[in-house]
Inverse folding.
């Protein structure tokens, strides 16, 4: 499969997942989850699956996606606009130093906003970030949403 064929297939899957998630009803007072990818990671397919998982669990989702400036993510994480920040890092996010900086900044912001932080995916997230929950699978993410 060529790169463009892989991109077309991924985009079709992403659009289908987004449509499915958008059609799941949520309560107006549902908890809110901000969905974003780690800085420098452009792979959002896992995030699309996380969105569907959150919507199935009754959460309202806010899609920030990729390439959202860190200062914007920190501002939202420290606000009352969200209850949880879910950050996805694919296996291509292999720079532990960059992921550590992002995780620490978001953990501090979530603490200030009394929000939870989930570090998801197979990226090289640091092992122990105080206040952050590590979810490597969608099942682990689903369990976090149920708490």
């Amino acid at each position: 499969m060529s790169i463009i064929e892989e991109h077309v297939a991924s985009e079709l899957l992403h659009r289908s997942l987004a449509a499915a998630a958008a059609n799941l009803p949520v309560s107006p007072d549902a908890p809110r989850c901000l969905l974003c990818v780690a800085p420098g990671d452009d792979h959002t397919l896992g995030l699309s699956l996380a969105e569907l998982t959150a919507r199935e669990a009754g959460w309202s989702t806010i899609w920030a996606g990729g390439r959202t400036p860190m200062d914007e993510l920190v501002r939202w994480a420290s606000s009352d606009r969200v209850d949880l920040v879910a950050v996805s890092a694919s296996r291509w996010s292999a720079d532990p130093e960059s992921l550590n900086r992002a995780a620490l900044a978001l953990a501090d912001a979530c603490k200030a906003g009394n929000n939870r932080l989930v570090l998801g995916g197979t990226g090289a997230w640091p092992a122990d970030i105080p206040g952050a929950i590590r979810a490597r699978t969608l099942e682990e993410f689903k369990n976090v949403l149920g708490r």
Q: What stands out?
A: The chain has five helices and five strands. The mean pLDDT is 96. The chain has one domain: 31-145.
